[in-house]
Amino acid sequence: MTAEAPVRRRLARSAAPAPIRIVHLGVGAFHRAHQAWYTAAVDADHQWGIAGFTGRSATVAEQLAPQGGLFTLIERSASGDTATVVDSIVEVNDGAETDRLVELLAAEPTAIVTLTITESGYRLGADGTPDLGDEQVAHDLEVLGSRIASSGDVLAAGVHEPLRTVLGRLVLGLAARRRAGAAGLAIVPCDNVPDNGAWVATGVRAFAAAVSRDLDEWIDANVAFVSTSVDRITPRTRDEDLETAAALTGYQDASPVVTEPFHDWILSGAFPGGRPAWENAGARFVADIEPFERRKLWLLNGAHSLLAYHGQLRGHSTVAEAVGDPECTGAMTAFWDEAVAHLDADELRLDDYRAALLDRFGNARIEHRLEQIAMEGTAKLRVRLAPVYLAERAAGRSGAAALTGIAAWIALLESGAEIPDAQASTVRAALAESGPLRVERLLQAIDDRIADTDTAVRTQAAVDLLKASGNRLPNVLASA
């Protein structure tokens, strides 16, 4: 006779939630494992509630709303799992609910807006300016023009075409805050983009300036943009993780999150309306964030991208599988050797950082899928591998390891792999070309600065060698 499974109650709040003082755009697994966890860890008095808005899908809102925003965070180490119920998210909305977003951004208690919408979600160029050729950007600039007067005031409510971009919705909310006379706030992007605070500031102000000089000036005077570097490996939740969460907590959770024990958050900038004491959970506030950004973008994220493309070419599915392959590890180590030549070893403790990354990557219980990391290759390679290649060339060296990582992306595309990318149409058009022109067009999609004839020829040679050598990477590196 089979024992019946225990009946478990669904997660639900037993006390009043914290007041909303933080708005987050892009609620997903990483936000919940990182910013939401940090906030819950330090907010014992429950003064910093988070209202979240989803990104491309409303699924997380549908899952968390019945639970009052509560969710289970499973920390998965090599030796076992532990679980915590995180209570900092107090409201979750469909990202398309612009009216609620505008209401919250105009509210005086709101002091912080955090974002995790991926690099491509901002729809900005490398210099932070909006891509005016993007249909969604053009649409939102037109809609903002119909909803915000030249004085910066939000026009009377009426039937309006909905905004489609995150920055468009954010600017409308800031216009409403200006009209309400509310105090300044901080915007804190948490995506893997160098100097992301200044980058997003350029984009937000460009959106605002396109419709109102007065609004642009108000943003300049009242809104602080904080640069951050975030680090916590957070794979997609699997069906079996729901049972793990229930077994560890005794409650049914429709949307638990799995993450590694390691966490890191570095911030640089002002918070006009105050902030939680995140430093009590290990966050660090620094005057110059650039060295820490480069360390993380190149050594962690760059290695992830390199493993994603090389690893899939060699038949692997997860980071742990790829880092257990000497061919992939050799390629990653060669890339790290190039990258650290342009980082301060003493300030950043690079030997310790590299050793810790190897340990984290090798945690086979964190099933970090290579196909997930491979997504949005053009945007990721632009900030993860291309800068190392350019720095190596400027130093008079070949940049072979970084270039071969880019070649692996191309080889994977040429193998017929479908890799989601915001520039998918550009990538498809490039793949339709022949010979070196195909590679040159793909390099342009990443960064114009690496799309010279010499680099295209060397990349094509690396792609050919990858195919001819059965993806044996050391031989390719020696020849690139």
User: What is the level-2 CATH architecture name of the largest domain?
Assistant: 3-Layer(aba) Sandwich
Strand order of the largest sheet: 6-3-2-7-8-9
**Helicity range of the residues?**
40-55%
Strand content: 5-15%
Reported by name, the CATH topology of the largest domain is Rossmann fold
Low-confidence stretches: none
Structural class from helices and strands?
A: alpha/beta
Output mean pLDDT.
93
**Apparent shape:** globular
Radius of gyration: 23 Å
Distance between the termini: 64 Å
Report the count of strand segments: 14
Can you tell me the number of structural domains? 2
- Give the name of the CATH superfamily of the largest domain: NAD(P)-binding Rossmann-like Domain
Biggest sheet architecture = 6 strands, parallel
Structure description:
- This protein has 22 helices and 14 strands.
- The longest helix is centred in the middle third of the chain and has 24 residues, at 290-313.
- Helix content is 48%, strand content 12%.
- It folds into two domains: 9-285, NAD(P)-binding Rossmann-like Domain (Rossmann fold, 3-Layer(aba) Sandwich), CATH 3.40.50; 290-479, N-(1-d-carboxylethyl)-l-norvaline Dehydrogenase, domain 2 (Orthogonal Bundle).
- Helix 10 (290-313) crosses helix 18 (400-414).
- The protein is α/β, with parallel strands linked by helices and 480 residues long.
- It has a six-stranded parallel beta sheet, with helices on both faces. It has a three-stranded mixed beta sheet with strand order 5-4-12, sandwiched between helices. The protein has a three-stranded mixed beta sheet with strand order 10-13-14.
